[in-house]
Amino acid sequence: MSFSKLRASVIVPVYNRSSDLKVLLSSLMQQSISASRFEILICDDGSTENIQTIVEEFQSPSNPTIKYFKQVNQGPGAARNLGLSHSVGTITAFTDSDCIPDSDWLEELIVPIESSNARMTGGLIDFQNADYLSGRCMNFLMSSMIGAGGARDPRTAIHMKYFPRTSNVAVAREVAVAAGGFPAQRHGEDIEFADRVRQQGAEILFVPTAKITHNEQKTLKQLSREAYLKGCARVRLAKTRGMHELIHAAPALLCLYIILLTLTTVIAPTLTFWSSLPVFAYLCLIFILALQAGICLNEVLAVFVVFSQAILMHISYGCGYLATRLKLFLARLKLNYFPTSLSTENKKV
């Protein structure tokens, strides 16, 4: 591979979080790769905080080149595309402003693209070292098979395709451009982008040694809303790109069963005990997962946090999935049985 160009461009979409951005930039200054061989592009998605001032603090001849771009608020996908359009590195790497990469993160992430057939790589999101308990618990949950199908750690997934998340991913720049960059949607855009890359026949590789710490800070309300929107996005991806596996519908089936159980309690109360056993089994499974979190994180409180996060996330995701499926069904029903041309009586000709 020719090194006439920069080896990599690190693209970071930012919306406020100026204090987190300082920590991220500090860690990027400590990367094992030579500072002259990569650049950093900070893409400000309409922040109300003064992000440019933070960037200027780190701009120095001894540091990697840091570029700053700003756009009106359009979402992280558009911000990443802004960075992609201005990047000059042979490989583009993506992370988020609330992440802290290990010192050898970038080197570990891009070497497989430089030295093998892999065109896209995804790294490991460490769930143990985040600053906040809620963030450690959420990262544990998203990395587990029961919690989120191993979304952040494919080693826990069973028979699922691997789609790297944009908090820790690298891709050959020409492949990213050929894939059309990121879609405009605010949820599921990273999965769709990875699928576009895969559809080009590109090999996608998981690199567990390329680690970052993700300092997530979400209230239960924010967690619920995000899970709901991810459920909506999953239906969109299934419809537009055929991206669907059985496990994606599991939370929706849980919600449907709870609805049926409620009806059973009203209509046939004598069957309530037996029909509630599957829900009890689900709760036991989540509790076992929560106990595992408590052991892995070495914190008793993590048991209760993971238990509540998991149930809230599953139900919210399932509701979003079902609501979108219902919306599509009603739209199809209206189109088939109440076409516009008939409702207007052929414009009363």
TrEMBL record:
Which Pfam families does the record cross-reference, listed alphabetically? Glycos_transf_2
Which SUPFAM superfamilies did the record assign?
Nucleotide-diphospho-sugar transferases
Give start and end of each Glycosyltransferase 2-like domain.
9-131
Say yes or no: keyword Hydrolase present.
no
Q: Which residues cross the membrane?
A: 246-268, 280-307
Could you say which residues form the signal peptide? none
Keywords linked to the UniProt accession: Membrane, Transmembrane, Transmembrane helix
Q: What is this protein called?
A: Chondroitin synthase
Taxonomic source organism: Gimesia aquarii
